Amino acid sequence: MEALRDSERRVVGTKEVLRAVKAGTASRVYVANDADTFLYQRIVRAAEAAKVPITRVERMKELGEMCGVQVSAAAAALIR
Q1: Phi (first) and psi of residue 76, to 5 degrees
Q2: pLDDT digits (tens, 9 = 90+) for 52-69
Q3: Which residues contact 15 (CB under 8 A, 6 or more apart)?
Q4: Which homologous superfamily is 2-79 in?
Q5: How do residues 2-40 score in pLDDT, each as one tens digit?
Q6: Which terminus of the chain, N or C, has fewer Cβ atoms within 10 Å?
Q7: What is the number of alpha carbons within 13 Å of residue 29 lying toward its C-beta?
Q8: Rounded (10°) CA dihedral 37, 43, 15, 26
């Protein structure tokens, strides 16, 4: 998870993560366990279909902090 914190090549948020996965530019997806069930499943299914590794994070607040944003985040991704 340090890679997410240290990387400048990342996207944050459900829409941006899904866009990166579909475009084939996501190298790893991070998803919060406490995210909305529909969004969580949508992100996980897209990442699995694209064969992108998934890292699960306990809380949305923690994921937001790792990304350096002041709000909670349901998902984030490292991009190539």
Answers
A1: -155, 165
A2: 999 999 999 999 999 999
A3: none
A4: Ribosomal protein L30/S12 (3.30.1330.30)
A5: 888 888 899 999 999 999 999 999 999 999 999 999 999
A6: C
A7: 33
A8: 160
